[in-house]
Amino acid sequence: MLQLKNISKSYTTGSFTQTALNDVSLDFRKNEFVAILGPSGSGKTTCLNIIGGLDQYDSGDLVINGASTKAFKDSDWDAYRNNSVGFIFQSYNLISHLSITDNVEMGMTLSGVSADIKHRKAVEALEKVGLKDHIHKKPGQLSGGQMQRVAIARALANDPDIILADEPTGALDTVTSEQIMELIKEIAKDKLVVMVTHNPELAEAYADRIVQFRDGKVISDTNPPADLKTNANYQLKKTAMSYFTALKLSGKNISTKKWRTALTAFASSIGIIGIALILSLSNGFDKQISSYESGALSNFPVTISETAAQIDMSNPPGAQMEEADKKWTEFTDAAEVYPYDPTANTVLHTNELSQEYLDYLDKIDHALLDGVSYSRKVNMNILRSDGETAVPVDTASLNFTTYPDKPAGTEGSYLADYYDLLAGSLPEQPTDLVMVVDEYNRMNQSILEALGFDYNAANVSFDDVVGREFKLIYNDDYYTEADGMFKLNGNAANLSEMYNSANAVTLKISGIIRKQQDSPMSTMSAGIAYSDSLAEQFIKNAQGSAIVQAQEQQDQVNVLTGKVFSQIGGVDMSGMQMGMGMGMGGSSASTDPGNANSQEAALAALGAVATPSSISLYPKDFGAKENLVAYLDKWNDNHSKEEMIVYTDLAAMVTSLSSGIMDGITMVLIAFASISLVVSLIMIGIITYISVLERTKEIGVLRALGARKKDITRVFNAETCIIGSLSGLLGIGIAYLLTIPVNIILKSITDLSNVAQLNPLHAFGLVVLSVGLTMLGGFIPAKFAAKKDPVVALRSE
């Protein structure tokens, strides 16, 4: 049945090599009681471990029923120990936190035997060794002889072919030793029993065969078999420990260390508590902010302008900013203006505010609106001079915009409060202009060109910008009458004369400003900003000019070209509140008097009629805004991309900004709280490693019973899974309780009710996170446990 053929085994420690077995050959019968005797260091225990598959030979072969074990893998040796071998150890090697029934069942558990069958067999085995009345006890409640009987029952329960006993009576008194030997002799009637002992009297009294070892060799054999019959159909049944079994083992082990487990779980839960509270507050504050925004931002307008910026999907914003970061320095100290081409980064969509669209807006449910306001553009006549020649400024390229003024009677300046002055001074007179640059000190090339700067040569110095003068020319000087018609007084000599005329209004760039670094958003884009008083002054003058009065009398003919207009109906938004703002137009078809196709367009181009450049719709509340936006989107659903109207929802922009800030704060706080999770992960690793050291003998026992390396890993992973679950549930429970005092404190400080609210999904996610992190922390110690040598593990105390 069992053969050792020329087995050799040696151990190397540093440069020293010890030969434990030297060319040992032994044959064993299917059922006999063999006692191996010999002095310490003779190799008898090594031989027993090799027979049991706990240790592997260096050379030779171990043959089981005619099957060689040379090609055995780790999993084959595990199955061999589980199927074919039962161990009886001198120190019993019972798992202390399991009942004796669970100890006996363990080998069958690894074999995959059903619960009912393994329990019945375990009870039968315990009855066989005389422990019927003790099946519910734990090992610590038994005497030494009783624990050895449990070890024998465990060895027999899975019905192995071979029983290996290593000094089974070494820790017992004489009477108990004789009882154990009688029991083993009874077992040997139908099994092969191989016993290692130092006691020759016991061997001679009970063994059928005595084999003597000395210096790693067999020196005598009292009853060697003459002819050994073998069964060549030997097959192994693979072992497997279920995760439930691993949880059961770890759970019972943890139950013996309740306080340590509780303190470990609490320490690990601190990070979960912190993150849970942060998420609770973030969730609550998000709701409070949304409620506040619904009230405070409900009347922010939805604005429809003639042009709107859209993202160029072929050049995404991330790539644009990456390029910008390479080329420009944000909030630089350099005293230069940097030209750039914004068309490379954005696509400008032109909104055609046609009569059809204005009629569509007129049909908006007035119950949704608090009012409608229009921004009007003013076409001014502006000249610049190089000292010799005056030329018109292309105002269409200047991005002229009015800068905000604080209401009358209030102190301070909007520009001073929200912008940094880079050079010069802030406007003091209506005729003072200010240049606005972006955070990179950039300015549109077309604006610099319109202002007369040669941006191709070099960057523009602040000193060249501040003090730059322009002249505003009124209509009566800019246009001349001839035979009832008007023309531009625009030859070079006349333009220079107008520039130097006493009637010309001197405009000057008084300073250069940039939004403050900590400002979340800017109300003005890069360009030239002017006082609203300047626009009002020009409109008033234009309305009394000769060309405007002549044009008002001519509703069919353009007084500049003599061409007949194509009539366009007026705009009527009756029932809605109208306001008038100021913006500047340029020399495009819509603002050039010569290209005007209606009397209204001609008057607007002459600065006398404020035509809409943008429309602001003020919703009553957030719900009305959503309906309003849906109504505006409905227009786009029925029109092509070119005919679409792109609007700006300022409330949505602010909401997105505040949401981003809240998310950012939450992420930062979670990052800080996560430090404790990292500490917990390290702590779990240490605790698991300590558990591995404490359970080293248990590891050896499980391996001796046929547990695979992955089963050992699974046992400790199950332990960390239990601790992680307890930690997560404890953390969530404490966090829920802490939201009560937190809400009370916040209520007393801020008058906000029920701020801290933990989302159940967040709670579930944190429990999963806790389990995942603790299992990660225990992963390395679990792998370390699986790699332990079972022979060394069994010798540990």
From TrEMBL:
PANTHER family: CELL DIVISION ATP-BINDING PROTEIN FTSE, LIPOPROTEIN-RELEASING SYSTEM ATP-BINDING PROTEIN LOLD. One of its GO terms (molecular function) is ATP binding. SMART domains: AAA. This is ABC-type lipoprotein export system, ATPase component. CDD domains: ABC_MJ0796_LolCDE_FtsE. It comes from Paenibacillus typhae. Pfam families: ABC_tran, FtsX. Residues 2-240 form the ABC transporter domain. The keyword Transmembrane helix applies. Gene3D superfamilies: P-loop containing nucleotide triphosphate hydrolases. It is a multi-pass membrane protein. The chain crosses the membrane at residues 665-693, 714-740, 760-780. The keyword Transmembrane applies. Keywords: ATP-binding, Cell membrane, Lipoprotein, Membrane, Nucleotide-binding, Transmembrane, Transmembrane helix, Transport. One of its GO terms (cellular component) is membrane protein complex. Coiled coil: none annotated. Belongs to the ABC transporter superfamily. Macrolide exporter (TC 3.A.1.122) family. It is found in: Cell inner membrane. It comes from the Bacteria.
